[in-house]
Predict the 3D structure of the following.
Amino acid sequence: MADGAASHVVRRQARYQVANWSPICLLEIRDSCGNLRARGGDHPSVLLNGPGSIPSRVTDFTNGTYEALAYVNEVGNKIITAHAWSRLGITTNFAESMIDSPWTADFVHTAVSKHSTLLVGTALVAGVTAGTPAHLLLNEHAGDIKYISVNLKLVQPQSISSVRAWATKSSVRATHNFRRGRRMVRFILYTAGIYQLRVFLNGSILGAPVEVRCHSGRMSASWSGVRDELSRYIIKARDEFGNDVKTGGEAVRVRIHGSGLATGIAHDSDDGTYFIRHSAFDLNPYRSGSHLMHIDLAHKPSIGRGGGGLMAQYFTDGLNGIPSVVREERGPLVFDWGLEDIAVGVADYMSIRWTGLLESPESAQFRLELGLLDPNDAARIFIDETVVAETIPGQHRGSGIVYLVRGALHSIIVEFHKSTGPAGISVEWSSPEMAQQPIASFSLYSRWQPMRGSPFTYELQPSLNSSSS
């Protein structure tokens, strides 16, 4: 819970201007252990005293930080106090002064205009992502506003013309007041770069332009490019709007088919480029000829957080025909149905096939182990199209050994046949460096999409020994 004594006042100033919406301070709400609260809703307050008391408007950024704004008409010194709500006991809350509060600030004259406004929002600090709706808050103090408009102009990169950079590449509008003296500006940007945002009130430009940065979005398989440089394949990541992606963190699957099957890796350079690496040993290096290199982009719920699960197909007639249910199942492959229905209305004689990609945390020999609740059921695991482990009728468990490569995405298929009685299945793995445990959902990917142009033709030259490229 929030603790006022551990919370901080940051970005405070000793001098502000009157007749203007001024950012008084930024607040960081922390718990009693000093950890930043990773959500909003704590309702801190900032009060300006002497002469007179002026409350501030506090904007909740929903990440533990808040910004306080105030409009002051009179010059002079004011004591500014910031409070955060702390809890005493179970039901009692009290306002407690924050660290570096109170402080004294001087409010001085400034050039007075008919309208005074201030734009605030995380988009001004963290920027926005291409194609993602964003918004800013426009705080205004004006006597008569008949018309308000907002324009965004792309200024970097300069190679893009200013004609294209205006509203033709953006969707910008300001809503009606949702609170007196405050408007919300909604916009969408599609081209990565630095924009100038300008506010017009009653047809006149207001103040200096505000800078907004637009970052590229997630890597897109359809827009990213794969090039061949002397039999070395390189992926250049782009988002769905054609912007170059400057960061890494995506998962790419590489497979080569021909005189054999080889699994490769896409080395992440953390700058939006990925270098394809693979061993030609499994391709029969003594046989030359054309091979097909398949490059796929695995789906990740969010960057840097792994996969999430496998795709499941439920059948009522073996593993043949059209599945009765197809769904993405999140989490590790551990199920204990007991005597309950495996699918709606079906408890017995059900077959399931889970498919996806498996990412290994290390390059090592792994033992994969199947566990069944009922020994009369059956299951098996395929890794890269080869059966690695399967159960024997009358036994609860079955295991096998497979070598997995760190950084590679191996195809995985798990098949399960249910007869009658209680049902349950688990898939676990272990290695010399890792104790036996269920395969975490982080290492499983349920969906992927071929990169543009995939598969690519790969020419293998004959060699007297295995080679790498």
Remarks:
- The CA atoms of residues 20 and 116 lie 5 Å apart.
- The chain has a mean pLDDT of 80.
